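Q: Hi! First time asking for a complex rather than a single chain. Here are the components, and I think there are two in total. Is that enough to go on?
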Amino acid sequence: MISSHLPIAGHRASLCIALTLGVITLCLYQQLMAWVLLLMCCAVGSRVFLFKGAYQRAPGTRTINMLALLTCVALGWFSRDQGLLLTMVNLLVCACALKLLLLQKHRDFLQVSGCCLFLIGCTFIFSQDLFATILYAVILMAALLSLQLLYAPQQPFKGHVKTLLKMALQALPIAVILFLVLPHLPPFWGMPEGKSSETGLSEKMTPGDIANLTQSTERVFTATFDNALPAPQQRYWRAMVLEHFDGYSWQVADYRKARQQLLPLMPGQSSSEAVQSTIDSPAWRYQLLSEPSGNSWLYALGYTRPQNSSTAQKTWRGDDYTLMSRQPILSKQAFSLVSYPRTPLLLSPLAQERQVNLQYPEQTNPRTREWALALRLQSSSNADYIKRLLAYFADSGFRYTLQPAVMRHAPVDAFLFDYQAGFCAHYASAMTLALRIAGIPARVVSGYQGGQLLDEKVLNVFQYDAHAWVEASIDGKHWQRFDPTSVVAASRLLYGFQNAMADQQEDLPLFSRARSHNSAMVAGVYQFMDNINYQWNRWVLGFDGQTQQDFFTRILGHASIERMTLFSLAVVLFIAGLLAFYFMPRPTQRNVKEPLRLYQHAAAKLHRVTGLPRDNLPARVYQQRLNPLLDKADQQALAQFIACFEAVEYQPEHAAKQNLLPLRASYKVLMRSLKTRGPFKPPRN
Amino acid sequence: MFARFKNRLLLQWLANRIPGQRRHQLSIQSVFILPTLFGFSFMILCVCLFILGTNYQNNLLLLLTYFFVALGLINLFASYRNFARIRLQAKGIHPVFAGDNATFQMQLVHTTDAHPHGELKVHWWGHATGIVVDLDDTAGVISLPRFTYRRGVFSLPRVTFSSMYPLGLFKCWTHLDFTQPLTVYPKQQTCQVRLHSVNDASGEVTSHAPGHDDFQGLRAYSEGEPLNRIAWKTVARGLPPAVKVFSEQSGQAGYLLIDPNSGELEHQISRAAFQAVALCRQNLSYGLKIGSTVISQGSGLEHRNRCLAAMASIPATEAANDQ
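A: Yes, that's all I need. Here is the structure of the assembled complex.
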């Protein structure tokens, strides 16, 4: 009788789904809480023991319900510092683990596999690089395999894998077509974010607190240029403008934040301003492919505008000329941008901006204040002051280091006069403060500087390229960029961070990317992987509505309604054709050997010509019967053919092979001689 | 009432669509296919993944969604093709006594290249439960039990086959009619064996028990004779074993009688069935007279089965129908 109860010991499907879930959980270890991981491990372990028959009794429903209650309480407790998305993922994994312990009925199994498929989908939110994708594809196959094991428990494993792979390979082309053709919609609504990572830039910069700058080798974005690249010393990718200074740290000013909340609500902002001299000035057109950061700031080279409408919809520009994405970047996204390096960044006409950029706490760094005021008095103009300031950095024995001393108290004073060693944030902070003291509006800009060439037109920017520099307004109208760090460590600017830091690499892991510049082979491997990843990012992950539009335009010319209709019809027909190709029954292969086939063809032809069927007669007898009905030439050809046929069929194999050629020749002769005769017509009485 | 009407309509439609046959090769005519509950959930899962993928602007999630959609589509055809590979042939069903389980045997015919896989659920039309056969495992014979309640000759109802291979997204099923008759012998009711002698000319009936009363004498025992005929008294006296011989009134005596118009027809039939079985066991010859139809005297299993089949096919009276 049919029982909906699943067997326990030796049930391959349960074991397979358990192991699949285990592997998914391990892949998600960064997102899961330790106790959730542990719970899943226990569940998988107990499944393995149950499979082996080491013990027979699966835990009862009541136990599991108690556990579920506990889990819910724990999840609720931790949800506050986890965020919605992570809590949901944790919840899903917990539910799977508990259901796995309680795998009793068909229905339970289907629920678990449904959750498992959904979890596989969720993993793509967190990582999308090529290798992870391959891993997840394998996991997906395992999940489907366990479903198939449920429905065909006795089929040999090899057969299962073969059937499944066949189905997957058949489904893949259809999936790709759907992916290419179906519209890529904009997000329906905002989704909960994962906890944003702490690496990279942040909205607050406190140079004095950092004793050891971590060198993360994560990629931040890739820029693919349409034409020439900017020179190395022009690659300043602005991300954030830090205007508020409390004596210790720099952060985004409050009024700026308020403007940032206001500006996105005003569409078509600033389209009139600053389009001034952009038409004829040189421009860098590039596609920015941003890695998921969980933040919304983007990276722009100076004055930047979106290149097309889809990017324009996704982004907005602040009046500090930073570029923001409307949605936090949670997955890889492409932005088409154009930057105009000659276009000056204007100081806002609002008095507030000027005011904020002159503000500094007078008590915190007294020595700097005294020194800066004195220096300003010595200088003839603001420009001269800046020149003297940079000269001070260059001549007074400043050192660039990633392991500066901690400067908690009066950090700028300590940096300028005590230690004279630090990294970009120290220099930018000190110079901006000095400028503000002298009454020149100045601010710190943080972002990335440089980037690694992947090929001629592609630039990879990594976390260790993070940089901070100064923007000051000498004339009170335009912002001008100054990089005090470059004065101290010019090589950092020209050759990138990697080379500049060559002497500080001893403590890096042996095979890290930052070290790869020492060994040609490691560098080659990294280069190769970067290339693959780049193509993957560009063509798969970066495929968006715009790319799709271009793709359609390339195929269809301009997209009119009739053409689109015809195109969609063609796509549907193509998919139907694919399905027909897969599943139409094919004629079974003839395994009749060639001599026999020729003989049968000849007999059929003779029947048609003479009206005399062969009817299982031996060849010789049939020939005798036919002879009166044929003319001389036909008779000869037929006799020759039959002789050859007998030679092939009734002789030992090696002889038969030799006679195959004459048989073919005589077959042709016979057919040619019969060709002249029309089909047999029964005589009319 | 409505359910019964619907059932009848459905059966009529099925009779036109899948006519009864001893052999069945499943085809587009005879296979039904619909998504299962899991299949519908799978669609919902696809929708959820699509929303997730669009909201996170995650191309891989979208690709995964489309892969699932395509996989569902492929599955539709794959599960049909797998199911349509099944070929079945009825092997027949042995008659049983009412109240026993009859076993209907079907032979799976496999061609070498296209072998169907997966679990196959088999149950009778309208029944909720049945048996599960693994197509990868069985030697090719499916035995489906059927419990019998009443005597009679029935045509077997349709057999429902269903499979959810490969991923459980779609369920293929069919209802096949193998046009096999099932004979259910009457239930046996224990009673005294009494044979009646029938005078063909007058139809006069005298009743007597067969060959038990008229003791004729003893003769020497030869090997193989039934133990209950041995005269144990003589053996006890130390004489060589002898066998009792009874006179049998062959020729005119030895019929089981059933009156089809009797008020207690079913009891009569049940008793006659018991007697027929008992007589067959004793290897005695007997005949059967049902109203005016007569099955002449005979013995052996075949004769017994003929008599039992005749009893099974007696039309039931009104009273029995009501039961």
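A: DSSP finds seven helices and 19 strands in chain B. Let me know if you'd like any chain examined more closely.
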